[in-house]
Amino acid sequence: MDISKAKEQIKNAIVAYLKKDPFGEYRIPLEKQRPIFLLGAPGIGKTAIMEQIAQELGVGLVSYSMTHHTRQSALGLPFVVRKTYGGHEYDVTEYTMSEIIASIYDTIEETGIQEGILFLDEINCVSETLAPAMLQFLQFKIFGRHRVPSGWIIVTAGNPPEYNTSVREFDIVTMDRLKRIDVEPDYPAWKEYAGRYGIHGSILTYLELRKTDFYTVESSVEGKRFVTARGWEDLSKVVHLHEELGIQVDQDLVGQYLQDRRIAHDFAIYYDLYNKYKADYQIDRILQGEAGEELKSRASAARFDERLSLLSLLTDAVCQDMRACLESEALVSLLHEALKEFKEELLRFTGSGGAAVLERMIKQHRRTLEVSDKAGTLSDEQRHLRLSLIKTLEQYQDELTAVPMAADQQFYQVKDRFDQTVEAMKAKVSETKARVAHLFDFVEDVFKDGRELLVLVTELTVNYHAARFISRFGCEAYFAHSHELKLFHRQQDVIAELEKLDPS
User: Fold this and answer.
1) Which residues contact 342 (CB under 8 A, 6 or more apart)?
2) pTM of this structure
């Protein structure tokens, strides 16, 4: 199965394992909860989906790579205690708590979250000395003399032997105690993830044209040649940063992430071409409705790969706009709650100034963020949102500190700043809707009844941020064409599913 289906299977298993009966006992006792064994090629996103699952379920996450552990760190260190049996004293070996088990209790103590996931990666590559204890752990959930706390689900992952010579095959007895899920690389599944998490447009367009380059592992006289989903994602991050910093992206850089010379060479050439299209077609002018006849004629006469690149540049730009709008709306929602709290606190503590009230609120939000970070329950988007909230509250505090005023004036000062944020958000939404309308006008005018219109509507349908934006704020051109192309109902189903996965 692909990684998205594997995520759904794991999530369902964890929900089932955490289900309790009317007496507060787990319906499936800890000893009967089969550890999940996720088996798949390296770099396809096994670790990433565990982080997403923990965030979506609101449970803790403790992760370890088992190749980094010795027998002592996994089981604990031995020490001798004196015990009496049948009236005789004996020296008995005990063990300190396993580092892995102790980290679970540390997470519980620091966050207050009682349930979670213990994720052990590269489980089938442990050292020879640790292998017997590892098999015992998978069967009985005990390291040394200490058991995994109740409410913590064990999920493991490993690579098939063809990808890693260090792999140790589990015997039938062990495998019969595991819930095994096999995962294969799958570009369409990864593309949905990529659209949500901002993978660079050049990468997505290149892979649309050359899907076979998404994932490959080959042996040659020069050694292993490989390209993985992890490699594409890490390359995307560094390309974004290089563009912000004005640093050149060349084949040498690409080859550090895509370790297949041919694919690295082809993508580096395509990246330069992608940027040439970006400059030649003046993407921002098109989205402002200012595309000239010469530009339209060139787009109309272009080959399909050039048209696809242009369409990718345009959709990537509007999807970024839509994402920014949704982030602004989410911040406004948090600020609205903070504004109500600020007003209540001012009334409750009449002797405190507004700056002091905001300082207490900021400290509380920072503490909440710190706990969430330790628990791993926030996505990057959620963490950025909460940091933006704290930064905005600090700006309010600075303004109140700079100009002394009465308590009621302080509230209206903060409310005025909040109202300005709301108006800026509304203006950004209106501007984005206009840019999307200009995009549809351009595609209709230039490509007539070609495949490009179908591609555009489909991309907006499956893109996480575009689907949410259109559902929230509407888009007349999209609804008209999605109805014509019989995609409207599919779009509604996609939005419903995405909203279920969105914890914010």
Assistant:
1) 354, 357, 358, 361, 411, 414
2) 0.77
